[in-house]
Amino acid sequence: MPVEIDSEDLDLSSIHDEEYVRKLVEIYALKYRTSPPNLIIATHTTATRLLLNHRNELFPDVPIVFCAAVLSSEELEQLPPDVTGVTSKGDFSGTLKLMSRLHPDMRQIALILGGSDLDASPEPAVRKALQPFENRFELIWLRGLPLRELTEAVRALPSHTAILYVLQLADRDGLSYVPRNVAQAVAEAASAPVYGLWDTLIGTGIVGGCLIPIEQEGVAAGKIARRILLGEAPASIPVIRMEQNPVIVDARQLKRWSIDERLLPEDSRILNREHSLWQDHRDAILVASGLIVLQALWIAVLLWNRKRLQRTQTSLSLECGRRAQAEELTRKLQTRLGLPDKQSTLGALTGRIAHEINQPLIGG
Fold this sequence. Notes:
Blueprint: H1 18-31, E1 40-43, H2 45-53, H3 55-58, E2 64-69, H4 73-77, E3 83-87, H5 92-102, E4 108-113, H6 117-120, H7 123-130, E5 138-143, H8 147-155, E6 161-167, H9 179-189, E7 194-195, E8 208-210, H10 214-229, E9 240-241, E10 247-250, H11 251-256, E11 269-271, H12 277-280, H13 282-337, H14 343-363
Parallel strand pairs: 1-2, 2-3, 3-9, 4-5, 4-6, 6-7, 10-11
Antiparallel strand pairs: 8-10
Helix pairs in contact: 8-9, 13-14
């Protein structure tokens, strides 16, 4: 089924004031006034909420599939019948438990939050998840710091500290950032291991965490969209709630921070392992080794047969030489004797000579 896709970047993570949102709504209402789409896929929370809040102005009759959106129970209950999708949930508690499990000697937890309203939105959930840990660990809040100050702060953290990177879209001065770039800068500068909340941060230098599986959620949303485009009613497709996030870690960071893999939960996913040649090509190595062994055995058999044949040929040559010597000696004797009455004596003598010549061969 051919599908034409238009992609729109709302940039609501960096600009989200009322005037900007109003202008966006006006632009998209004008742009799609005469040719509305058949389906809308909204990625992340801000885009989903914008579409829900301004749906009557934008796309009143167009089905919506959302993805990677953090929506409250009240918001989910109030969804229109032609809106469905896949929710996300940051597992702050699970990631904090993982940090304490992998670092038994941890004494401090440093938490990174940006300075914008969007950055502050997860803080209540973070504080709730921290309640069981408040008496065990000292909490160090790194909130709204410009990137240079932030990297200096994580470089100077005390020993026995682990860092939880929650989110930083902007600093206290209003300067916007790409969250992945912040995670990478922090991980490179930090004197302590860094943990995160999204699987898209693996590869930036974070150890891992109970990570939101963005790719998995995208695939699920794509399948829902396909069903709707093929004619299935959105109201018949329930919202997929991703309540449990998998433990995903980067093997390179485990090695960097000397973290024992045996401390990980059994169902953990370990990415970016540095495989040996044997691990990467085990089957090919086994097949090649087997062929080499068979070839070596075949060569050994051929060499043994060749050596046996050479011994046989040598023995036959010696025997033929002795027989030739006996015949030559017999001929000479016959020539010397040459008398008819000596034939019987000559025959006996020839047999005796042949017997004497062949005696060493038979003895060998």
